[in-house]
Design a protein that fits this description.
49% of the residues are buried. The N and C termini lie close together (11 Å). This protein has one helix at residues 140-147, and strands at 6-7, 18-21, 52-54, 59-64, 73-78, 93-98, 102-106, 112-125, 131-139, 152-153, 164-169, 174-189, 192-200, 214-217, 223-227. It contains one helix and 15 strands, in the order βββββββββαββββββ. By secondary structure, it is mainly beta. It folds into two domains: 6-47 and 153-227, Thrombin, subunit H (Beta Barrel); 52-151, no CATH class. A hairpin with a 4-residue loop joins β3 (52-54) and β4. The strands form two sheets. It has a seven-stranded mixed sheet with strand order 1-15-14-11-12-13-2, with no helix packed on it. The protein has a six-stranded antiparallel barrel with strand order 3-4-5-9-8-7. Residues 1-38 have low confidence and may be disordered.
């Protein structure tokens, strides 16, 4: 699945919100959205590639919850459809499965500065959301000491329409800037159904390889969703055409 969209987060750790970019002239994705709110508040932060990673087939990021300790094993966030074992089936959840997958860690400029190694797939699914979460062999403190890079923090509150966001792809070393256009209560693609997906405004026309990219709130610098899909050929509810 080549994805410009965002999948909902693991409820216990992440937001429970996913993101899907709008494609021009695509009325099928209009259902159940929130009104766009006017922008106001603090100035946007400069979003960089620091803390993002490149997988062999996707993008991802090193993430932490607000209460993560420096000595905790670092977590890498990506999509469930990016798992090395293939797409989890509907209703399937992968938990605590050994993994030796590697990730190229990027600095602010998008340069690869080191390699992180997974110890296990802590969680992976394509049911209700499109999410994978890897536990690595390095702690957050070890990564910061070795590379001077801090993990991206997960936002605990649900995102809001009108929020300025950046999709940062470690695979392509490319960013996409737009706003949250609204939310899709239920999004169907082929055999899979996702809930509470975030829809982007048309400026974020993401491409294959951006799957798993963190969706970052430009104001807070926190991760509010993970990019996962988009409509590629105008069909409805088929693979690559949610």
């Amino acid at each position: 699945m080549n994805k410009p969209l965002v999948g909902a987060f693991l409820a216990a750790l992440l937001l429970g919100a996913g993101a899907a970019p709008v494609v021009a002239a695509e009325p099928a994705q209009q259902a159940q959205t929130q009104e766009t709110a006017p922008k106001a508040g603090p100035e946007a932060k400069a979003v960089t590639f620091a803390g993002t990673v490149a997988l062999s087939n996707c993008s991802g990021s090193v993430v932490r919850s607000p209460d993560s300790a420096p000595t905790d094993p670092a977590l890498v966030l990506s999509n469930g459809h990016c798992l090395e074992s293939g797409f989890p089936g509907p209703g399937e959840v992968v938990v605590d499965q050994p993994s030796s997958r590697t990730f190229t860690l990027l600095n602010a400029s998008g340069d690869g500065v080191g390699t992180l190694k997974a110890s296990k797939i802590a969680y992976g699914t394509m049911t209700d959301t499109d999410l994978s979460l890897y536990e690595t062999t390095s702690t957050y403190q070890q990564i910061e000491d070795s590379y001077g890079i801090q993990a991206l923090e997960l936002e605990t509150a649900h995102p809001t329409a009108g929020t300025a966001i950046t999709v940062a792809s470690g695979y392509w070393k490319r960013t996409y800037s737009c706003d949250i256009d609204g939310f899709v209560h239920q999004l169907k693609e082929g055999r899979w159904t996702w809930k509470d997906s975030v829809r982007y405004t048309p400026e974020c026309q993401t491409i294959g390889g951006t799957s798993g990219s963190p969706v970052i709130d430009d104001t807070t610098g926190k991760v509010v969703a993970v990019n996962n899909t988009g409509n590629e050929s105008g069909q409805e509810c088929t693979d690559n055409n949610p």
